[in-house]
Amino acid sequence: MNFDIYFPLFENILHGNLNPQLSANDDGYHYTARLEEMIIVTVKDTGNYGLNFQQPFNLKTRYYHRKILADTLLYIADMQEILQEETDNKIRSFMRNQLLDKHLTTCLMRLGEKIQKEALYIELLNDSTNQVSNNQLSNIFVFQFLKVCIAKAFLEIQNMLTDVVIVKQSEAMLYSSLVCEKFPVKQFLKRRKPPGMKHEAAPNSTITKKTHYTTKEALAVLGYSESTLLRQKKDHNFPVAVKQGNKDMYLKSEIDAWSIARH
After folding, report:
1. Which of 48, 50, 71, 57 is nearest to 159 (CA)?
2. Which residue, 161, 191, 221, sits at the end of a domain?
3. Claim to verify: residue 27 and residue 150 sit in the same structural domain
4. b/e map 11-41, b = 16+ CB within 10 Å
5. What Å distances lie between residue 165 and 57, 72, 82, 95, 235, CA to CA?
6. pLDDT top residue among 8 and 131
7. Residue-wise over 43-55: b if at least 16 C-beta within 10 A, else e?
8. Rounded to the nearest 10 degrees, how much is the dihedral formed by the CA atoms of 160, 163, 164, 165?
9. CATH number for the domain harbouring residue 208
């Protein structure tokens, strides 16, 4: 099978001539010319996950933000076109393994190693007490934004391959398990609701002891207290409860996947 699975710009930003840490890419007025010369293929973001990252704060971050986002959306659109045409379950499983389990997972792990090793922490962007230079802040912005865009690509492709995904990942899981960020992590992606659609509880006839946990059962599986559960429910990726009378019921597969990811 011949298709390009590689996330655009990743190697070039980490080790190539787009690495923001190169002296040639230091912050400066020369980014005005780069922005003017930039050719961007515009792709509308029709994905399931909206991106709400910090806005660029200088010419350098504006340049990288525009370039990374455009290539990310084009990559997702290309993967969607390929995956929509493929219906063979074995091939789709192979694609999941190559795209999610191997490539994008490796990208996040390598990026996490760099972030941890060089202290490129997201918290520094809004810390008025730090002594980090503007150029270093720009570098932090670039690597953190790249991280979020890779996570977006992962979640969008995971959604396209949901029929062959074994353990569903969330943005928080990706950052805590692959990028090695301390939980709770900052998140920048939010699942969109389809236009005109509202979340509706599943009919009571589909809720059984075989398919759903009660709140008490979910707490036991997760090892949470009620207060911890309330905090976790603020995470938009946490399994959504449905109502059965006055009781909250949680889909077993979703709670089990969440528990596995955190243990």
Report:
1. 48
2. 191
3. yes
4. eebbeeebbbbeeebbbeeebeebeeeeeee
5. 38, 22, 17, 11, 21
6. 8
7. beeebbbebebbe
8. 70
9. 1.10.1660
Question: What integer is the mean pLDDT of 145-149?
Answer: 97
Q: In the numeric block, which tokens belong to residue 49?
A: 């996950």
pLDDT for 195 equals: 53
Query: Are 185 and 223 members of one domain?
Result: no
Residue 226 has pLDDT above 80, yes or no: yes
Specify the pTM.
0.74
Q: Chain-wide mean pLDDT for the chain?
A: 87
- pLDDT (tens digit per residue) in 227-249: 888 878 766 578 888 887 778 88
Whether the Cβ atoms of residue 194 and residue 233 lie closer than 8 Å to each other = no
